[in-house]
Each structure stands twice: as C-alpha cells, then as structure tokens.
Amino acid sequence: MREPRLKPRELEALAEVVGERMGLHYPPAKWPDLERALAMAAPGAGFESLDDLVTAILTETATEERLGSLASCLTVGETYFFRDPKSFSALERQVLPELARRRAAAGVLRIWSAGCSDGAEPYSIAISCSRALPLCGSLEARILATDIDHSALDRARSAVYTKWSLRDMPPAVARDFFRAGGDQRFELRAGIRDKVRFAYQNLVAADQMRPAETTNVDLIFCRNVLMYFSPQQRRVAADGLQESLAEGGYLFVAPCEVAGELFPLLELVQVAGVFCFRKTKPPPRAAAALAKAPAQKPPPHDDRPPGRVALGGPAVPAATSPERELADRAAAAATPAASVLARAQALADSGRTTEALALCEGIATEMKLSAPYHFLRASVLQELDRQDDAAGALRRVLYLDPDFALAHFVLGNMAWRAGEARAAGKHFATLSRILEALPADSVLPASDGTTAGELQAMVRDTLGRR
C-alpha cells in the first residue's frame, strides 16, 4: 500500500476546510481517499503539485472557483437518465397532474434539481414534464438545476451524453428526445434542453446567496446528495430544502435518505408506491418549535431490555396552545414506539420472524426515526433470508447513526461472504475506530449486553479466520 504523503494533522485540516467550504464529509477513515482525490485534482485546478494545492487550501488562498473545480474528483458524479424509474413514474402519473391542477391559475410550475451532476436528472424531469403537462392544460415548467461542481455544470449545459447515460431509457423515448451523433454520442434536443437553467449552488453554505428560483418551489429533486454530508451539514441542507418548498410542494430524495427527523416541517407520503415528502401547512409557531426541539432523553427508570436503545422522540419546551399540543403528540409517540419495538424483538427472539416484520412495517411513520428501529428490522430480514433488504436497512442505520457499531459489523460480514473484500475492510476499519474510542466494558446499543471489548475480540476472531 502506498504510504501517505500528507501528515494526519494536514489531512484533518483539509477535511475540515473541504467540509466547511464544499459541504463534503471526510471522516478519518476516508482521509486516504481525500489525499488521492486531491492529488488527482491538482493539475486540473491549476496547481503544479499536491503540495501547492494543499498550501493554497490551508492558507485560504484558493478561490471558490478553484475549489469548485475540485468537486469533480471529490464527489461521485455517476448518474443516468430516469434513475429510479418508480420515482419518475410517480412524478408523471400523480405528482405533476396534481401540481398542474393547483397551479393552473399561475400558469407556472417551479422545479429545482439540487445536486444535478451532469444534468441527467433535471433533463429527465423536463422530459417527464413534456409528457405529462400537455395533458393538464397550458402550464410552463421552469426548472433550475444546481451543483457545486463547475465542470459537471459545463457538461450538463452541453447536453451531450453517451449511450451508457441512456441505458435505462426506452429506445422510443431516446429517439423522440435525442439526436444521434458520432462516437456513440447523443445530443438532447433543444426543446428539452432549453427548459433547464443551470447554476452553481453549495447546499451547506447557509450564508450564501441562493438563486431566486429556489424560493416557493413546487417540486424539488435532491437524491443521493444528503448521504455524503456530515450530520451538521445534512441539517443545514435539509433546512434549506424544506424552507424552499412551497405549501403543497413535493420533495424527492433517495430511498436511503428518507429520514423524517431531517424534515420536521414536511409530511412523509407514499405516492404510486414511492415515498417522498410533501409540505403541508402546520401551525407556524408549532412547526418552528418542533424543528428546533432537542432530542428527548430516556427516563431515568424504564423497562427496556439491557443493551437496547428505545426510540426517542423530540421534546418541545412548554409553551402555549399549538406548541403545547404538538409537544404532547411528539412525546406520546416515544412510548408506543418503544413498546412496539420491544414486542417485535420478543417475536423475533421466539422465532416468529414474519410476525415481527409485520409489526415493524406497521409502526407509525413518525416513529421510524431511529437507528435501533432499522437495526431490528434488518435483523428480522436476515432471519427471513432477505439479504438485500437487510443490507438496505443497515445502510439506513448508518445514515442515521454513522457510529452504530453492530451495523458496521454485520455489513462487514455480509460483504466478506459476498466476496467484497474492500467493502468489508472499510466497515471493519471503521468499526475498530469506533470501538477503540469506547471503554471496553461499555454496552453497545441493540446488542443484548455485548460490550465494546467483546465485539472487538469478535472482529479479531472474524478477521483471523479470513
């Protein structure tokens, strides 16, 4: 393995700057990836060497434009047209017709694709609008697409794609909206290309001037973006998204990003089999109180089994009328949630896994806001030999709590069994870092009493048998 050129303190400082100025989260386990990405990016950003680039970043002499050019190497820009077909089916069949009816008088729909990469997503939205809106009367769709990567925005504006980007598009649709060129390139027709405006936007820069089109938006797509932010950055980005949404508007995120705790002002709804968020009209003061509420601490004496974590709910300070009512509802949700999880765990422990899963699936949406819930669901899915679904639930655990030790342990073992040594190594390396920071006798959440020291020994034993 190549020895790192940069010192740990330099990597720590770089990760902090990249996080603050670009919204990209690089924990210690990913510092080697950060160094490799910066080394690749240096020539394209106009620096003769990695050292010159590092100096410019740490001395704050690198301009925003130069930092923006680094995003191509620091972000995952892989995308394609109509990624997640179910979401676009729901968009065309239900969401766009509904919005068109409600916005008929205004004559305009405002749409925002946040984190648009090379433009495949906003152009897919434009194609969906061209197919759905003519059936709903005379309505114009104005689409804004933003990203932090300047080079990706340039590629998006060119609207030229390879066959690989069109791989999930029906041939008839490709013929209708693209013109084939040389070298297996396909150029989007002007009628669709002209519907989208592209602009630079950093979702986690709370003090940055935002494009005017990001206010009072009817539809926002922000998929596979939030997962790359730190918890603090995720909070900033989520606040900006829900504030931008108009009343009755919809927000589409990736399935692994559907965390209700991120969007307290929005309602999680199911549309044509797809989960997304919708902005209803709660009492304004009550909504603000819920959004700012601290996490509720568990009571000093409870009936939870040792080593398990009950599902907490937001605690809202005492207030008058609407705030008090909302606080009572939020606090009341915690008790039944913990009770349901305890019953589901008991069913799973007794081998009644199908009943346990049904109980998990039936839990109220607002209760599905904690990592322990998804970890229990993953355990039940594993027992039912639904490994892919279990892995998805475990990834949701880590989205909500990146330091959830047992989720890393299980995902590491699953990766080993699948022959994915690199992925397994990443999970076990992260797990070792988490466990080393804990006292050996500390009991891990959702572990039936397993301590950090015991799990560390299990990891060593597991790796020793590989």
Main attributes of the structure:
alpha/beta, 7-stranded mixed sheet, 3-stranded antiparallel sheet, 466 residues, Serine Threonine Protein Phosphatase 5, Tetratricopeptide repeat, Rossmann fold, single chain, 3 domains
Regions with little confidence, pLDDT below 50 for 5+ residues: 283-336
Order of helices and strands: HHHHHEHEHEHEEHEEHEEEHHHHHHHH
Mean pLDDT: 77
CATH class of the largest domain: Alpha Beta
Range of helix content: 40-55%
Largest beta sheet, briefly?
A: 7 strands, mixed
* Structural shape: globular
Strand fraction equals: 5-15%
Query: Whole-Å distance between the termini?
Result: 19 Å
- In the CATH classification, which architecture of the largest domain applies? 3-Layer(aba) Sandwich
How many structural units, i.e. domains? Answer: 3
Neighbour order of strands in the largest sheet: 6-2-1-7-8-10-9
Query: Number of helical segments?
Result: 18
Q: What would the CATH topology of the largest domain be?
A: Rossmann fold
Give the structural class.
alpha/beta
In angstroms, what is the radius of gyration?
24 Å
Report the CATH superfamily of the largest domain: Vaccinia Virus protein VP39
- How many strand units? 10
